[in-house]
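Hi V.,

Quick status before I head out on leave. The structure for the redesign project is tokenized and pasted below; the design run finished overnight.
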């Protein structure tokens, strides 16, 4: 009997699924081929080359719908966090599904406007270092809310708004001093972090803000970090925000919005966990403390929407053995996906094709890129079926903070990106040409 060698647990339906393909009617067994929706990844590699980011539109839609469904009982807007993946085609897809956006720079603001100008009224602007130019552009675009992170920023915003004679709706991003169990680089809700204003100083600052003619105090915002899979810290942070909302209202402020930021994590390793159930638990945890407050809730998920919807496709350039250690040198590198190098992040790496019959030899390998740094790896000591040069591998859950964090280190063109929807394939970012990488220097 044929035995499924490539375990279903590594699949990410509906985005990435292994399908069996019979080689011949006269042979037992066939090959398993990894597909993005209906399209074999091998076909995409042939057509667009590698390294290549591949995204599933259906997965993006479904994951957004999971959020929308979990929060259907409360007045809310999902403001997708553009930093997770800022491809304009992805933004457009999300805007069509009713999404607003969370932007953190003039560049992201412009991407949002290009994707769908009408999304501006559902867009919030976060970040500790907004410049005058960025604020001015956001005021002109007519965004929904500025999440202000310091007193200095407040006065700069007041100045920009006064100059334009446009009112800026303001929420203070408060730092609730709540610990979240995640990588220290992406935890943000503690007193020691640079983010937000200490929650105990907030009332005083709101009082100052309300005195500025072109600022309108409109909400409270919070974001405690990223890749958080326990919902308790979210509940704790929102409970503190809810108390603040009550205090601010008693001070006479009109608080219409509570923005709870992003940060809900995904399971990079354990696929048996249920995403819908996690989002439902999250919704319960954050809505409970807000009950009776009658606020419009803003959510800024990034990773949870786009992470598992994308994979990085790469080819094995060389196999090599150093003192008993086996390496697969692939054509993607840390410049294309920096998460393993930067955070020691785990990403599932799977072969794109493999024989379906049992008896496939497994081996333990490091999957590494061509860059001259020992941190240039995707996986260490992983069991993979024996692969030859030119075989294809898919690095899963790379849709969030993959291409968005890619660089041109080593003068390497960043990967191309394709978006798959059932049987249709769209190149949503062509591969960079070498000349483009240095033309600004000539
Ligand atoms: N809102 C604010 C204010 C944020 O700072 C972030 C992420 C988000 C929303 C979206 O968080 P998400 O839902 O995606 O967790 N490069 C890191 C993640 C950095 C997250 C930064 N802020 C990584 O690859 O894990």
């Amino acid at each position: 009997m044929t035995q499924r060698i490539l375990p279903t647990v590594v699949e990410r339906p509906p985005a990435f699924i292994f399908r069996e393909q019979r080689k011949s009617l006269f042979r037992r067994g066939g090959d398993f081929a990894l597909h993005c929706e209906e399209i074999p990844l091998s076909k995409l590699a042939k057509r667009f080359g590698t390294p290549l980011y591949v995204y599933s539109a259906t997965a993006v839609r479904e994951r957004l719908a999971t959020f929308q469904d979990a929060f259907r009982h409360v007045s809310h807007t999902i403001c997708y966090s553009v930093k997770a993946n800022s491809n304009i085609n992805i933004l457009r897809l999300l805007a069509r599904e009713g999404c607003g956006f969370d932007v953190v720079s003039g560049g992201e603001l412009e991407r949002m406007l290009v994707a769908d100008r009408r999304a501006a009224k559902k867009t919030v602007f976060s970040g500790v270092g907004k410049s005058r130019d960025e604020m001015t552009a956001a005021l002109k675009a007519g965004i929904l809310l500025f999440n202000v992170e310091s007193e200095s920023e407040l006065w700069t915003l007041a100045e920009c708004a006064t100059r334009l004679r446009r009112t800026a709706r303001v929420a203070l991003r408060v730092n609730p001093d709540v610990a979240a169990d995640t990588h220290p680089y992406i935890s943000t809700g503690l007193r020691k972090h640079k983010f937000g204003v200490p929650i105990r100083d907030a009332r005083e600052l709101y009082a100052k803000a309300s005195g500025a003619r072109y600022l309108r105090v409109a909400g409270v915002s919070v974001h405690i970090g990223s890749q958080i899979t326990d919902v308790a810290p979210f509940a704790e942070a929102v409970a503190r925000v809810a108390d603040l909302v009550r205090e601010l209202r008693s001070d006479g402020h009109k608080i219409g919005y509570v923005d709870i930021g992003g940060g809900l994590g995904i399971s990079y390793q354990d696929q048996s966990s249920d995403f819908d159930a996690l989002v439902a638990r999250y919704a319960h945890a954050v809505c409970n403390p807000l009950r009776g407050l009658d606020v419009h809730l803003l959510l800024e998920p990034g990773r949870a929407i786009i992470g598992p919807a994308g994979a990085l496709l790469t080819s094995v350039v060389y196999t090599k053995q150093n003192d008993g250690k086996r390496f697969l040198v692939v054509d993607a590198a840390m410049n294309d996906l920096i998460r393993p190098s930067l955070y020691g992040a785990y990403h599932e790496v799977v072969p794109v094709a493999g024989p379906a019959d049992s008896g496939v030899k497994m081996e333990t390998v490091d999957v590494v890129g061509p860059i001259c740094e020992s941190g240039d790896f995707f996986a260490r000591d992983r069991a993979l079926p024996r692969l030859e040069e030119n075989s294809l591998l898919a690095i899963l859950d790379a849709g969030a903070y993959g291409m968005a964090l890619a660089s041109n280190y080593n003068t390497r063109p960043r990967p191309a990106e394709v978006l798959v929807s059932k049987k249709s394939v769209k190149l949503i970012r062509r591969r960079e040409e070498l000349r483009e990488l240095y033309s600004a220097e000539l």
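Above is the designed sequence. The mean pLDDT is 94.

G. will cover questions while I'm gone.

Best,
W.
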